[in-house]
Amino acid sequence: MRLRIDGPTACHAASFRSSAMARLRSCLRPAADLLAQYAEYHRDQRNIATHQVGIPLIVFALGVLLARPTLALDAGLPWALTPAWCVWVVVSLWYLTRGEPLLGFTVSAGIAALIALGQPLAAASLGTWLGLGLGCFTLGWLIQFVGHYYEGRRPAFVDDLIGLLVGPMFVTAEALFALGWKPGLQAAIERRAGPVVLHDLAARA
């Protein structure tokens, strides 16, 4: 006996599949497209500067919070498998397959360094571990929201959750641009998103 779905239920199912495919395609876009979209929300110099501090602080905080529970792989090794490293493997594969190998490697290495800094805190008391993790996470977001006050625009992830992954890639790309990496890519992003500016807060009032 074959079950047939008609009417509104079938329409909802088709809409869900279509929406899921659209989100998947959005996630798999090349780095240039993702960076340009993210940059549209980050054109004020002060906003970019706050993200250079806030995003690494958030990544570090997640490294701390995901440092528990631990699974010792070998008693002779000085490190253990934690949820943080499992997440790192997945996101690194994503960064490395966005079409910019150097950028993917650099952002993955940077995240690994921040996670490694946070792992020893798993051995601290529950209050210390949780307090530092949540404290750094909250502070990182507060710093970013200050930047978006200057920007006059809400964070990118509000409109597209992929922005949460693009953030570390964006601040890494900005650092590489400052070192002279791929000026053509930087110019292409600015053509789409506009130049970096200092918004006049008085004019906005």
From TrEMBL:
The keyword Transmembrane helix applies. The chain crosses the membrane at residues 53-71, 77-96, 103-123, 129-150, 162-181. The keyword Mitochondrion does not apply. It comes from the Bacteria. Keywords: Membrane, Transmembrane, Transmembrane helix. InterPro entries: Mpo1-like (IPR009305). This is Membrane protein. It comes from Sphaerotilus microaerophilus.
